[in-house]
């Protein structure tokens, strides 16, 4: 008990000293092991920071596998992790809808970067006004947009840690090349699905950018954010669409409950049309750490292969 108390006092001192240091040196890193302490929100951003920052950063991601960022509320422990960071990266565009005020507060103390900020607004999809989302936040579904996010991380790391500029540039360049190849791979694979069956039906409307970028029609049961529930009319409309267009498969998402999508499948079956679950897609969260789907590239590849296998 005493030991734990001493430890927490030490942590408190550490927090106080880092916060004080922040106010006079905003753009330089200051932790003792020479690494930049980075705190991020969703796993896809954590992944960029790990790849681009390499050995020069310590990354703490707040949202793990299966976590829904739309509904995520920061715990006391999370606030501490944000407080201890030298720099914070988040998606923005209201993805982390319950954390907006926290980011505003953090931005007064330290670099707090929305990785979506350097994407031209004219290339964003519009969101849902009722939800307070001006733009669709799911930018990682267009790999080209995620390349912009990578550039944003690279530039911000260089700014806070200019001594390792060349490392960050090289790591980012390698990653950007892989993303460019991934972008081409996705486009080719989706194009291999016959056009009439090229329809992606999912639990929530996360795949809009994917549909735009890779030419597949997308229908989500819930809105842009999971904070709105699918109504009975949505269920009936989707059921009729599946039946009328003889769509073979729908998809569930790792971070969204499958109840509503099951109801639609049931409804279609009552109308004599058999719809299968085409598989589980990773939408707003990646797979478990240490699995291929636990990286951004692996997650995208899993999604595309799952979609192609079910619809081809
Ligand atoms: Zn979402």
UniProtKB/TrEMBL annotation:
Coiled coil: 165-192
A Gene Ontology molecular function term of the record: metal ion binding
InterPro entries registered for this protein in UniProt: AdhesinB (IPR006129), Bact_metal-bind_prot9 (IPR050492), Lipoprotein_PsaA-like (IPR006128), ZnuA-like (IPR006127)
GO CC list: cell envelope
Domain of life per record: Bacteria
UniProt entry tagged with the keyword GTP-binding: no
Subcellular location(s) per record: Cell envelope
Keywords: Coiled coil, Metal-binding, Signal, Transport
Signal peptide: 1-21
GO biological process assignments: cell adhesion; metal ion transport
Family: Belongs to the bacterial solute-binding protein 9 family.
PANTHER family reported in the protein's UniProt record: HIGH-AFFINITY ZINC UPTAKE SYSTEM PROTEIN ZNUA-RELATED, METAL-BINDING PROTEIN HI_0362-RELATED
Protein name: Zinc ABC transporter substrate-binding protein
Lineage of the organism: Bacteria, Bacillati, Bacillota, Bacilli, Bacillales
């Amino acid at each position: 008990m005493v030991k734990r108390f001493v430890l927490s006092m030490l942590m408190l001192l550490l927090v106080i000293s880092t916060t004080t240091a922040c106010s006079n040196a905003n753009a330089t890193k200051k932790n003792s092991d020479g690494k930049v302490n980075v705190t991020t929100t969703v796993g896809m951003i954590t992944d960029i920071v790990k790849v681009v920052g390499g050995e020069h950063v310590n990354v703490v991601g707040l949202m793990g596998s299966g976590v829904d960022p739309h509904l995520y509320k920061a715990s006391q422990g999370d606030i501490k992790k944000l407080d201890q960071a030298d720099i914070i990266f988040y998606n923005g565009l209201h993805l982390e809808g319950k954390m907006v005020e926290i980011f505003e507060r953090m931005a007064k103390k330290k670099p707090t970067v929305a990785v979506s900020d350097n994407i031209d607004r004219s290339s964003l999809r519009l969101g849902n006004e009722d939800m307070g989302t001006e733009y669709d936040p799911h930018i990682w579904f267009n790999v080209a947009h995620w390349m912009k996010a990578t550039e944003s991380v690279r530039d911000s790391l260089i700014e806070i840690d200019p001594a390792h500029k060349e490392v960050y540039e090289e790591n980012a360049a390698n990653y950007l090349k892989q993303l460019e190849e991934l972008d081409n791979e996705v486009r080719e694979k989706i194009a291999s699905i016959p056009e009439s069956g090229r329809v992606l039906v999912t639990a929530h409307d996360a795949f809009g950018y994917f549909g735009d970028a890779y030419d597949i029609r997308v229908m989500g049961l819930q809105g842009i954010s999971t904070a709105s529930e699918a109504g009975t009319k949505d269920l009936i409309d989707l059921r009729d669409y599946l039946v009328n267009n003889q769509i073979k498969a729908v998809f569930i998402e790792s971070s969204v409950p499958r109840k509503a999508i099951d109801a639609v499948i049931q409804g279609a079956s009552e109308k004599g049309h058999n719809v299968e679950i085409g598989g589980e897609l990773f939408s707003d969260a990646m797979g478990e750490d240490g699995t291929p789907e636990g990286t951004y590239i692996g997650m995208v590849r899993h999604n595309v292969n799952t979609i192609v296998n079910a619809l081809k």
